[in-house]
Design goal:
alpha+beta, 3 strands, elongated
């Protein structure tokens, strides 16, 4: 649960930007974390450092991939699967071919 102190220290009135305090606010976001910008006493947006944003997006993407993998696993019918041995024979691939293949990074 967020404390009152945390809520106060992590909110920034939008008027502070009009007063020329953007640089200070951005520096504070980098050192102290996300801030909520308040406009007319209501949350307007959230400021994050680029690193924090990328980390958050990566976590979301990984969660979506995990959800997809779980769904595919749950809906998999083993009878529809093709054994690795059959694929290797069909395409004339040996275990040595696989062992001697360089690692490939997929993004």
């Amino acid at each position: 649960m967020l404390s009152v102190k945390s809520a106060i220290t992590n909110t920034i009135p939008i008027s502070n930007f009009n007063r020329g305090l953007a640089g200070k606010i951005f520096a504070d976001v980098r050192t102290s974390g996300a801030k909520v910008v308040i406009k007319n006493n209501m949350p307007e947006c959230v400021l994050l450092s680029p690193e924090e944003y990328v980390k958050m997006v990566n976590v979301i993407e990984e969660a979506e991939l995990l959800k997809m993998a779980i769904s595919r696993t749950e809906n998999c019918n083993p009878a529809d699967s093709i054994p690795l041995k059959s694929i290797m024979e069909k395409y004339d691939i040996t275990q040595d071919d696989i062992d001697n293949t360089e690692d490939v990074e997929i993004e």
